[in-house]
């Protein structure tokens, strides 16, 4: 994506259109999933532009990504989304449990090592941010399903 900065002037309108798609329950699941992937990838090089709008799309993004196959597209979308989260972590208050479940349930067995490691590192960093922000972080994690708690502890030392 060598021309990634060339898209910057169009990011606000792209964001608006992609959010309209992923937040519309009448849109076919496949279209919503593709829009969510595009939105996440938009965050790879424009996280600071997307961050103020995070509360407007976080839950819909996470919902749309639930059934996307664990391929490179999903990994790069989650990497971009996590970069956006890092720019505005407080905006995730409503979507935080859903985000942690997405991290816990993420299985990327078929991905090549560099992408797999990068995404793991970004997830680890996001968990670290919330460990600092949430005074009762362990209590927060303990509210999750047992299998999700175990996955977070096993893969991310949460």
Number of strand elements: 0
Tell me the major beta sheet.
none
User: Oligomeric state of the chains?
Assistant: single chain
- Helical percent range? 55-70%
Radius of gyration (CA) equals 15 Å
What does this structure look like?
The chain has one domain (4-156). It is built from 8 helices and no strands. Helix 1 (11-22) runs antiparallel to helix 2 (29-50), helix 2 (29-50) crosses helix 3 and helix 5 (96-105) packs across helix 8. The protein is an all-alpha fold and 158 residues long. The mean pLDDT is 93. The radius of gyration is 15 Å and the shape is globular. InterPro entries: ARM-like (IPR011989), ARM-type_fold (IPR016024). This is Importin subunit beta-2.
Secondary structure: elements and pairs:
Layout: H1 11-22, H2 29-50, H3 58-65, H4 72-87, H5 96-105, H6 113-133, H7 137-142, H8 146-156
Helix pairs in contact: 1-2, 2-3, 2-4, 4-6, 5-8
Short description:
67% of the residues lie in helices and 0% in strands. By secondary structure, it is mainly alpha-helical.
Looking at this protein, list some descriptive labels.
158 residues; single chain; mainly alpha
């Amino acid at each position: 994506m060598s021309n990634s900065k060339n898209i910057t002037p169009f990011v606000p309108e792209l964001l608006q259109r992609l959010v309209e798609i992923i937040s519309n329950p009448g849109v076919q699941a496949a279209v919503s999933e593709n829009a969510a992937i595009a939105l996440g990838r938009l965050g790879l090089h424009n996280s600071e532009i997307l961050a103020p709008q995070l509360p407007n799309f976080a839950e819909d993004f996470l919902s749309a990504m639930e059934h996307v196959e664990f391929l490179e597209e999903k990994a790069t979308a989650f990497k971009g989304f996590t970069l956006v989260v890092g720019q505005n972590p407080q905006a995730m208050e409503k979507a935080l449990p859903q985000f942690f479940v997405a991290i816990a349930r993420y299985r990327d067995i078929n991905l090549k090592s560099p992408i797999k490691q990068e995404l793991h590192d970004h997830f680890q960093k996001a968990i670290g941010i919330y460990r600092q922000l949430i005074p009762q972080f362990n209590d927060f994690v303990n509210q999750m399903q047992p299998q999700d708690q175990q996955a977070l502890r096993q893969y991310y030392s949460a």
